[in-house]
Write a structure and sequence with these properties.
Blueprint (H helix, E strand, L loop, with lengths): L1 H14 L14 E3 L14 E5 L5 E5 L2 E3 L2 E5 L13 H8 L2 E6 L2 E9 L5 H13 L15 E6 L1
Parallel strand pairs: 1-7
Antiparallel strand pairs: 2-3, 2-6, 4-5, 5-8, 6-7, 7-8
């Protein structure tokens, strides 16, 4: 059992970020400037998000692109129904500086929550639902979904 724990710890340290559903620390990769248009990221199913710059915490997550902007939802189908119960959401609420790893490249960004009653929120949510093939029956109506726009720092 001790070997398994040591191997798991080594795997987490070696991968430079989260491993599956297990959160990780600082992301590794080449830092690049944020593009003006994130269309290239649309087909990518999963990225890594790093929060809490002073003590990095990273997770695997979904992203979506609408009108060239990059969006990050809180859980649309799994996990806590209330976003503020997620560790990464707590971190972003305290400090909006994040890093996102997409295909090995790291982008230094700010996570800005989009107003739930805005057209921007509706467009981002629609883009995410379409990308991940989520119909109305796939999302619990009691689930609260926050969406963050990721802007260049």
């Amino acid at each position: 059992m001790k070997r398994i724990v040591l191997l798991a710890a080594f795997a987490l340290l070696a991968c430079g970020g989260p491993l599956g559903p297990i959160s990780g620390g600082a992301l590794s990769g080449d830092v690049r400037p944020a593009p003006a248009d994130w269309a290239f990221a649309q087909p990518i199913e999963q990225v890594q998000l790093e929060t809490r710059p002073d003590d990095p915490h990273s997770v695997n997550t979904w992203i979506g692109v609408a009108n060239g902007a990059l969006y990050l939802p809180t859980s649309m189908i799994r996990g806590p129904k209330i976003p503020k119960e997620r560790e990464w959401v707590k971190n972003v609420s305290a400090d909006d500086r994040v890093r996102v790893r997409i295909d090995g490249a790291i982008y230094q960004l700010r996570a800005l929550r989009v107003a739930d009653d805005s057209g921007e929120y509706a467009a981002a949510r629609e883009a995410l639902a379409k990308k991940y093939e989520l119909g109305p029956d796939d999302i619990d109506p009691e689930r609260e979904i926050w969406i963050y726009r990721l802007d260049a720092r």
